[in-house]
Each structure stands twice: as structure tokens, then as C-alpha cells.
Amino acid sequence: MTIKLIIGLRNPGPAYENTRHNAGGWFVAALGEYWKGSFRAEKKMHAELANIDVNQHACKLVLPTTFMNLSGLPAREISQFYRIQLDEILVVHDELDLEAGRIKLKTGGGHGGHNGLRDIAANLGSNDFHRLRIGIGHPGHKDLVHDYVLGKPGQSDRKLIMEGIDRAIDAIPTLLGDTMAKAMSRING
Predict the structure, then answer these.
(1) Which domain CATH number covers 109?
(2) Quick one: which of 84, 104, 110, 79 has its CA closest to 92?
(3) For residue 44, how many other CB atoms are within 10 A of its CB?
(4) Residues linked to residue 48 through DSSP beta bridges, in sequence order
(5) Local structure of residue 90 (DSSP, 8 states)
(6) CA separation for the pair 140, 122 (Å, rounded)
(7) What average pLDDT does the segment 18-38 reach?
(8) 115-128 as b/e, with b when 16 or more CB fall inside 10 Å?
(9) For the chain, which terminal residue's Cβ has fewer other Cβ atoms within 10 angstroms, N or C?
(10) Over the stretch 128-164, which tens digit does the pLDDT of each residue have?
């Protein structure tokens, strides 16, 4: 198993750029910068794409230009066009059920109410893709979730989230060049 496609979930545009819901996009943008990938708009695929090479492992980075609840469209189009299999896809997203800055790697599972994951599973026909979950914390009550994820984190939470992103970037060579079990052990440990 080698990850060939990393999709960072986000809402496009300046109004959403710094919101918690865009943590997946923050990760993919930072990963592209770290590994010197240059994003280019691919209108037909509804995304910005970059190619990176991590220790001789080629990988495509994707920042959807669709809104979060339509993230499955670019995931399906890009994976089909480049013939990338389900087990070669990593979706990176914000996670309410993890405290700010905590990161977890997992394979499969439900969408947990996350509209981006729901749409990707519907478009790919399966939940069995890999996920990198970036903790953003929880507002405490389900009625507060919508405004919370579309709000900007405070300075301390933003710092914790960015530190989690940095730790995940450090683990990318293990994720791309080793087994998923080793990557999980490193990231989830």
C-alpha cells in the first residue's frame, strides 16, 4: 500500500480560509510547501493539484475548489483519471472528537456527521479510504457545532492545530514509504 493521493478538505475562498473546518486544507497546503509542490488550478477536476516526491514516492496533493459538502466530486474525478485505488487515498479533515492539535490516522469508518466525508464516501462508493483526522476540539453542545467549525480558532487553539499539522508532516515519509500500521503507530502514538 502506498498513498498516491492526499485530499485536504476545506471550503474555498477568503471568508473560510482561516476557519476550523479548513484544517485539512491547511495540512495539504503546508505539506505542499514543505515538499516544494506547486499547486495549479485544474478546473475540470474542481481542484488545485500539486505533485510532490517524498523519498522517491510520487504523490498528488488535492485542494478541492468545491464547497465541503461536494468534496466527493474532485475525489472521484481525480482518482478515476489517474487510476488511483481506494486504498491509495488519504483524506485529511478536521475532527471535532479530538482535542485541538491531536492527530489520528485511521482506515474506514463512518462519516460522523462530517459532510465532506459523507460526500467522498458516496462518490467513491465506499468508506474504506484512509483518513488523517486533525483535532479542532468540540464546542460542548451539538447545537453549537455549525458556528464552531465555521469560526476561527483562538490563538492558542490555532497554535495547537498547527503543531499537530507539523507532527503529521514529519510522519509523511513513514506514511508514504512504509506500512499503514507503522504510520499509525507513529502518528497515533
Answers:
(1) 3.40.50.1470
(2) 104
(3) 9
(4) 41, 63
(5) E
(6) 29
(7) 96
(8) bbbbbbbebbeebe
(9) C
(10) 999 999 999 999 998 999 999 999 999 999 999 999 9
Contact (Cβ atoms closer than 8 angstroms) between residue 95 and residue 68: no
Q: What residues pair up with 47 in beta bridges, in sequence order?
A: 42, 64
Q: How far apart are CA 181 and CA 25, in angstroms?
A: 24
**Residue 70: φ, ψ to 5°:** -120, 20
Mean pLDDT of the 61-81 span:
97
Catalytic positions: 21
Amino acid, res. 23 = A
Q: For residue 82, give the DSSP letter.
A: T
Distance, first Cα to last Cα, the chain: 21
Boundaries of domain holding 122: 5-188
Sequence-distant (6+) residues with CB within 8 A of 33 are: none
Q: Are 8 and 27 a contacting pair, CB within 8 Å?
A: yes
Number of separate domains in the chain: 1
Q: Hey, what amino acid is at 68?
A: M
113-133 per-position pLDDT tens digit: 899 999 999 999 999 999 999
Rounded to whole angstroms, the Cα distance separating 24 from 75 reads: 14
